[in-house]
Amino acid sequence: MPEFAADELGVQRCGIFSELPAFLRTFGIDPEPLSRKHGIEIEDFADLDRPLPFANVVRLLDECARVTGEGAFGFKLGLRARIEHLGIIGELVRHAPTLGRAVRAHIENHHRVARGGAPYVVEQDPFIVNHKDETLIGYRCLISGLPALQFLLGSVGAGVALVQELCCLLPKEVLLGCSETAVPADEIRVAVKPAKVVFNSHHFGFTYPKTAIDMPLPTADPVKFQQALKRVHGYWNDVEPDFADQIKRLLLPALHAERAHMRMVCEATGLTPRTVNRRLAEQGTTLRTLVNETRYSIARQLLRHTHLPVAAVAQVMGYSEAGVFVRAFRQWSGSTPDTWRKALPRKPDGSATGVSAI
Fold first, then answer.
1. What gap in Å lies between CA 253 and CA 265, rounded to an integer?
2. Which terminal Cβ of the chain has fewer Cβ within 10 Å, N or C?
């Protein structure tokens, strides 16, 4: 399966990345030549609404981690996130009636400010079979071929910081889809204590008890929430709606829940299967192609950055049998999952290099 043309896809609202220059300076590094190397002018960080090339931001974070020697660079940058960084969507989130509604409002409108990655919520089987009283909030990159580990860490850190600002809560668990040797594990544990940090997870995300998800927010305001809702529906940050991108976002939690994808897409969009197929055909793709692209991207991230056995990766992908997943992966990549994983560049400790593409 071919890689996406990463440089031609994706845009990211500046938002939290406005903190990047000041954070780099705490390491004694001049941010201007580094950001310019990746096609971003230092002035761009002064405008929270500035659209930045998604791939450039991802590569910049990856290099920041290397030049600073800070393996948790993205995570620590994310912890500097504040509701004000979200702009108009931040107003929606701040005035939502509950934490759960705030999270859903962010997810429902994320496509208005970013293309290249997406947040999602998992509340269905098989996750709740083992975690019946928890809700998982996660983030995935939708563009393959990028060194996205630091960006994903940043997304988790930002989510933790934003929820803490909203309702003074830390998550029950922080989930990192990478091995403990890929990042400074103890530093991350200290940063989110008393939350439990789970490495080699199926997700990059965090969990909260359902009781917390349903709790009213102290900043809730029904009038301001409705006003923000009307404003946000007319807002696009240099990102026009894209049907294939919308479907990929819907697929993220569905892949973990083994739901019938066409039925789920139709329920979520209010469209018939015929209309879904027609609109995807207009973009030169199909639902099966989008499902396979998303599965392949997630599978590679798990194989590269975790120590999960192939059978566990297959389960995450929604396959009932590991053999079916192995055959599918061979079709996508030309090799089996084990062979693909063994061919990865390795650190001296045997783990895959953290700067590799996801």
1. 12
2. N
